[in-house]
Amino acid sequence: MEKIRTGINRLTEGFSYLETNVYKYRIILYAGGLSLSMLLPVFGFSQYMTRIFIMIGIYTMLALGLNILTGYTGLVSLGHGGFFAIGAYTTAILMLRFQMNFLIAVMIAMVFTGICGLLLGLPTLRLTGTYLSIVTLGFGEIVRMVIMNFDTVTNGTLGIRNIPRPSFFGFELTLANHGLFYLMLVLLILVTYVCIGIQNSNMGRTLRAIKADELAAVMMGIRSSRYKVGAFVVSAVLTGLAGGYYASLVSYIDHNSFTFDVSIMILSIVILGGMGTIRGMFLGAAILVAFPEVARPLMEWRFVVYGLVLILMMRFKPQGLLGWRSRLPYKIPVLKRSQTYREEKEANRRGR
Amino acid sequence: MAYLEVNKISIRFGGLTAIDKFDFKVEKGQIVSIIGPNGAGKTTVFNILSGIYRAAEGEITFDGRNLKDKSPQEIVSLGMARTFQNIRLFYDMRVIENVLIGTHIRTGYRFLDGLFRTKRFHLEEGEKIRYAADLLKTVGLEKRIHDYADNLPYGEQRKLEIARAIATGARLLLLDEPAAGMNPQESEELRQFILQLKNQGYTILLIEHDMNVVMNLSDYIYVLDYGKKIAEGKPQEILENQQVVAAYLGEGEVE
Ligand SMILES: Nc1ncnc2c1ncn2[C@@H]1O[C@H](COP(=O)(O)OP(=O)(O)O)[C@@H](O)[C@H]1O
Ligand SMILES: [Mg+2]
């Protein structure tokens, strides 16, 4: 047992040292990583492999979405499969019934999922811990019930077939022409950008403060309820985006595409990768999506394995594989900007 | 009218009258202390002032405004901020981030500014970060800016908690037993620090057991026992008050 702990810790230590040393070259690294992923299709992978890469991308987006709520704010949701389903169904229905373009359908789906996030976030404001988890779990199941019984809109248990692929100016994106892969890449970059923006602004800082000590945050004048609901909405919107893309990718969805397993899978990625990190979502998704493909015989047991992973992580490394405290100094911007700011203010005053 | 004026506030928890018609006032620039045995209701007074609890009766006026029905956020933005008896920092965050959370109430940029990193975001964020760094310098934590809050020794955690309260822009600081758990040297340092705050123009309402701190700093002292005010006066008058001595002897807290 001790060995496991020291093993995992040493691994993270290693990564952490790496961070300090490669930070200077981060631009090169990002550019390298990006161009490598862009070149992936060129290496001539089979559609099967491309599909796995795409699934990793989708689950990274899902984890990034849940991470806003669970990683930063500390609100554990067991029902994100519900938001995933809402995003997917809304996109599918809009594309099929109203012949909408994928982009427009997805954007409407994101708004709608966000509203659902608001509707779930508001009444659960006072709940934390296990109570909140149970309510969100119920939410995921209710979404499934609605899908199964609201036949006129969702086609009930038969599911929705023949969802069109995304197409732009008459050009259809498919697996074969790698269009779907690149679309995933674009969406993933977008979602990551949003998450970085949140992390580095007062929203991210506030969410972490609420997780650390909500009462202390309130006593510093923070309207914690607003931020918690905000986290629900943003989290739901990002999850809805992933859902919309998923629907268009697989072109057939039904209530079984969005079971409790999916919610657990997303949560497992967040915990394994490292709550409150962005890098961790990529690694977590890569490991947990690729795992059942690599270990086919274990397929039936994969949820036992996920459960085990969760328990082991909680026991030995609650920060997750890539969750460490940065040793880099906090960035303090140079004074220049403040001077320009003052000058501007002065100029404005004189102008008036 | 005084800066902070509290008029006959009471609060009950079930059958217990935790605060019973307590009134006191604090003039601008003063250090006023509330002392009393454990369980007397001192922290409860802070909880009422900062908007966690509502007084069942009585009035509170701060800076000319009635605090009735004001939310904690409104009270902070009016210029009152507090610390906690058991330090409550954001332990998983850096020292400077703790202070930055304090500045958020004065930060004007919106969610979308942060998302798209607009000019406004850069200007305000830069300004607040430098303000936080400067503030940490003035309280003597400049070497700790990049550290995580839980790596600080006890005395510095107390200072950080006060700095975080200052960062909200508050001019009235409510300090709940800041010297608790400090050794004599640390508590002497703290005394100097609070004095420095007073000289910078802050008004301080202090709950404290450490008599070295209380008697040397306070302009005025209120003594609370079982939720009732049993005495008030200048430090010398309190020291000579028989009722106060009795209340403390009952608790066995006289050193
Ligand atoms: N939320 C509460 N519910 C019930 N009783 C409380 C609550 N808060 C404080 N009390 C009671 O009020 C009394 C005063 O507590 P407190 O203000 O913490 O005392 P002090 O800070 O002077 O040591 C105590 O008897 C305490 O048990
Ligand atoms: Mg107390």
TrEMBL record, chain A:
Instruction: Keywords in alphabetical order, please.
Output: Cell membrane, Membrane, Transmembrane, Transmembrane helix
Primary location group: membrane
Q: Where in the cell is it found?
A: Cell membrane
Q: What is this protein called?
A: Branched-chain amino acid ABC transporter permease
Membrane topology annotation? Multi-pass membrane protein
InterPro entries per UniProt: ABC_transp_permease, LivM-like
Give any Gene Ontology cellular component: plasma membrane
Instruction: Give a Pfam family name.
Output: BPD_transp_2
What residue ranges are annotated as transmembrane?
Answer: 27-45, 52-72, 78-96, 103-122, 179-198, 229-253, 265-291, 303-324
Q: Which PANTHER family does this chain map to?
A: HIGH-AFFINITY BRANCHED-CHAIN AMINO ACID TRANSPORT PROTEIN BRAE, HIGH-AFFINITY BRANCHED-CHAIN AMINO ACID TRANSPORT SYSTEM PERMEASE
* A GO term, aspect molecular function: branched-chain amino acid transmembrane transporter activity
TrEMBL record, chain B:
GO annotations of cellular component type: plasma membrane
Which top-rank group of organisms is this from? Bacteria
Q: Which GO terms describe its biological process?
A: D-alanine transmembrane transport; L-alanine transport; L-isoleucine import across plasma membrane; L-valine import across plasma membrane
Residues covered by the ABC transporter domain: 4-251
Q: Where is the signal peptide?
A: none
Record key words, sorted: ATP-binding, Nucleotide-binding, Transport
Q: Fetch the Gene3D superfamilies from UniProt.
A: P-loop containing nucleotide triphosphate hydrolases
Q: Which GO terms describe its molecular function?
A: ATP binding; ATP hydrolysis activity; L-isoleucine transmembrane transporter activity; L-phenylalanine transmembrane transporter activity; L-valine transmembrane transporter activity
Q: Which Pfam families match?
A: ABC_tran, BCA_ABC_TP_C
Q: What is this protein called?
A: ABC transporter ATP-binding protein
